[in-house]
């Protein structure tokens, strides 16, 4: 208990020093447009339900952004993990796809913006589903295909790369032994490849979620966006509400940190054996 308390206190030293430095600099600058006071930003954060510049509350915009990120991220997971397993296990699949996908891996998600706009315009999931009214339409219309695609691209390659590495790192002796004992392909995948590669896959999912969250602001700057914390930051900047910009940035950081913490807790609970085996 004492060790945990000491660890918590140590981890708070830098944030506290940063806030003190922020307060001091804001006092010296004395210009809320350049650097708002700590109290101005904190008042927004402790009242996340308040309406901001007629764009809804901070909390509602965060929820919209979170839904967008999770939509693109889940699509990336559903595609990247099966493809990564196949490429990692079958050398023919690896040879077939690796060089081709390697051409797209270095391209930043933001570089896709002009092409994505040409492909999708302002079309949304509501456009695909044909829903034209009601609360469901409101939510689906906020899921622009262009935004989801940018987030998908950001998450796809980290998950794919980690999955391939995890499967290719599995001890071949285990697979050969299972084949000798009569195991079929399904059992090899479910009993050997997936459990052994799971730590690497989960680590890739964690990295992919972080990249997807970082792509959020770029995605929400695309035409057709009228909500989301990224759009809130951009719009607040244009009307010189820097305190909203900083509050939005802090919100993105906090939500991203919470999502990452959830993955770390899961890793610590499910893959403790990996640390013990080192």
How is this structure best described in words?
- It is built from 14 helices and no strands.
- The mean pLDDT is 82.
- With 278 residues, the protein is mostly helical.
- The chain has a single domain (63-269), classed as MetI-like (MetI-like fold), CATH 1.10.3720.
- Helix 2 (38-45) packs across helix 13, helix 5 (113-120) packs across helix 8 and helix 12 runs antiparallel to helix 13 (242-270).
- The longest helix is centred in the N-terminal third of the chain and has 32 residues, at 58-89.
Give structural attributes.
14 helices, 278 residues, globular, mainly alpha, MetI-like fold, 77% helix
Instruction: Work out the number of β strands.
Output: 0
Q: What is the overall pLDDT average? A: 82
SSE-based structural type: mainly alpha
Provide the CATH architecture. Answer: Orthogonal Bundle
Quaternary status: single chain
For the report, how would you describe the main beta sheet?
none
Give, in order, the helices and strands.
HHHHHHHHHHHHHH
Question: Percent helix among the residues?
Answer: over 70%
Question: Which fold name fills CATH's third level, the topology?
Answer: MetI-like fold
First and last CA, distance: 26 Å
CATH class: Mainly Alpha
The low-confidence runs, each spanning 5 or more residues with pLDDT under 50, are none
Taken together, the total number of domains comes to 1
Task: Write the CATH homologous superfamily.
Answer: MetI-like
Question: What portion of residues belong to β-strands?
Answer: under 5%
Rg: 23 Å
Shape: globular
Alpha plus pi helix count: 14
